[in-house]
Amino acid sequence: MRILVVEDEPKIAGFLLRGLDEEGHRVDVVADLAAARLAVRVERYDLLLVDRMLPDGDGLAVVRELRRARDRTPAICLTARDRVEERVEGLYSGADDYLVKPFEFEELLARIAAVTRRGVGAERLEVGDLVVDVEAHRVTRAGAELTLTAQEFALLRYFAENAGRVLSRTRLLDAVWATTHDPRTNVVDVYVSYLRAKIDKGFPQPLLHTVRGAGYVLEDRAR
Ligand code: CA
């Protein structure tokens, strides 16, 4: 893959460059926002790894700009800030995932595999009248198209892949978010409520159910 690393800390940038190069990726490294903006304009990347604290601003700005231009290039934000609201903000800005520094290289590879896989699977998952087209990144309910953010889509996809199974918050957090997390985070509940507002609101039969004390389940209970 062609990967752009936006990181101003030479040690981390070097570590990423060496590791990803060894994995067979072609990596460009830039150290500030201005260089990142230029790089994405001249080159087509398969993945962006973006540090948030750059000398000239927040690295997420470049992701936000790409998303505004309808560019879905997978992006993972690298952050030293281990606060839930900032992670949620990162996902709001269009990042597909985040990693909190310091992280293990193996963990980065797993995150890369997850965010790049999300877009290319050739699956079509159906739960009742809800259809998740993994390849096209499209979701419809009763034939009507729904607009989901990347993170909402990732969560819905995982629910659809495990339809009928009760999924705990911890499991959802591990599967859809990073493995480094604060176990008290309410990010799962927050995103479940976003998802509900999109897939269930206005429909007489909800598909996303709360199982008290256990978690959530996506299933068609009308059948
Ligand atoms: Ca930095």
Mean pLDDT: 87
Number of helical segments? 8
Reading the helices and strands in chain order gives EHEHEEEHEHEHEEEEHHHEE
* Estimated structural class: alpha/beta
Q: Would you give the CATH topology of the largest domain? A: Rossmann fold
The low-confidence parts are none
Number of strands: 13
CATH superfamily of the largest domain: Response regulator
The backbone outline, from C-alpha atoms, is: elongated
CATH C-level name of the largest domain: Alpha Beta
Helix content range: 25-40%
The number of distinct structural domains comes to 2
Distinct ligands: calcium ion
Largest sheet: 5 strands, parallel
Rounded radius of gyration (Å): 18 Å
Approximately what portion of the residues adopt beta-strand conformation? 15-25%
Please name the CATH architecture of the largest domain: 3-Layer(aba) Sandwich
Give a quick rundown of the structure.
The protein has helices spanning 10-22, 33-42, 60-68, 84-92, 105-118, 150-161, 169-176, 187-199; strands at 2-6, 26-30, 47-51, 53-54, 57-58, 75-79, 97-100, 124-127, 130-133, 138-141, 144-146, 208-211, 215-218. It has 223 residues and is α/β, with parallel strands linked by helices.
